[in-house]
From TrEMBL:
Domain called NIPSNAP: residue spans: 4-106
Species of the source: Pandoraea thiooxydans
Gene3D superfamilies, per database record: 3.30.70.100
InterPro entries: Dimeric_a/b-barrel, NIPSNAP
Entry-linked Pfam families: NIPSNAP (PF07978)
SUPFAM superfamilies named in the record: Dimeric alpha+beta barrel
Lineage: Bacteria, Pseudomonadati, Pseudomonadota, Betaproteobacteria, Burkholderiales
Name by which UniProt lists this protein: NIPSNAP family containing protein
């Protein structure tokens, strides 16, 4: 089991639009493709409060590649994403890490 940590750094004031897109659009597409979210967070104390951090769970890198690529290529997702950003960009920058548990990790 591996996990993917993603941090979406939003344009100023656009975090509510990102929350809306996740709640009403993105999660439905993830369900369609079998993408498994573990948790979502916002930052209470840190360098910015305009970020969404989330964790995804994958069986393998191969599963991640197949499912993520299918999701990103979905023309309906692309249209919904473009629609959500018609007035202004939402995400300025994305950080992405693939995490592999240690032998002593309680989450494996």
């Amino acid at each position: 089991m591996i996990h993917e940590l993603r941090i979406y750094h939003c344009a100023p004031g656009r975090l509510p639009a990102l929350h809306d897109r996740f709640q009403n659009v993105t999660l439905r597409f993830w369900e369609k493709y079998g993408i498994r979210p573990v948790a979502f967070w916002t930052t209470a104390i840190g360098p910015t409060n305009q970020a969404l951090t989330y964790l995804l769970e994958w069986e393998s890198l191969a599963e991640r590649e197949a499912k993520w690529d299918a999701f990103i290529a979905d023309p309906q997702w692309q249209a919904k994403r473009a629609e959500s950003e018609a007035q202004a960009i939402i995400v300025e920058r994305i950080e992405n890490q693939i995490l592999v548990p240690t032998a002593y990790s309680p989450l494996r």
